[in-house]
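Let's inspect one such protein example.
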Amino acid sequence: MIPGSRGHTSWDRGKPPYGGRIHLPRTRLEMTMDFIDARMRVSHPCPFCDLSKQFPEAEMYLWCNRKSEVLHVSAEDDTVLEDILRAAKNALNVREVIKCGKQALTMTYACVCNVEGSVTHLADKNECWLIPPTLYTGGWETHRVVSPSKKALQRFVTDIRRSGEVEIVSLRERNHLSAISDLAIAPVHFFEGLTARQINCLVMAFENGLFDVPARTHMDKVARAAEMSRSTYGEHLRKAQLQILRNSYPILKLRSMGVSSAGSDQAAAK
């Protein structure tokens, strides 16, 4: 007897059917190993997005197990952090777990991200997978998505656009799992958190050869072209470099561990 059909089944006795095994349908991802690896930014009506719009400079990371959420909050100072936590308690009914300096870890008493019409719900509907954590900053949430096909991803995006905005940051076709061995890494785009002025300073520095070895120009000259003082230009440039390093650090750390491990293995083999 098929589970869910009328009549008595072994589920009624607390045991799965089919000789004690639970058989799940094979998805296209399992059968062909061809899939889409994408990153997208979404802005839509959502308690977490609303909180991010209220505090656009803060960074919040969300993990969910479908029963409750863990929300990590990072603010620019202690006062702003207290304001965010107060707003989160009122809007999301969170409880504070740990607070240290300008960061805090909170937890919801129940899952609030998987309601009908949410990004999580629409991902399930279109057979897409969201790789946690989700980043919230500036009123936008950034997701890493694994989809069995472009059509499934297109349906997913179309559903989201019925109530919000979607920006596809990157999209790649994959045919082997080693290409996404960093799935556990936070889905942060390299440009996340950069201001327009910081991006402009980076572009000008690169185009004028300031990063070349040896450098083809001096910072004073690039700063004048940007109509800034040397100190102001240098501060924007350093902040931009630091933000890109922060965004790419998880990948760099993973790669460095792999290189170190490979080096140790080679040394042991000699």
Notes: Strands lie at 35-43, 59-64, 69-74, 94-100, 103-108, 129-137, 140-147, 165-174. The radius of gyration is 23 Å. The chain has nine helices and eight strands. The chain has two domains: 30-179, 196-252.
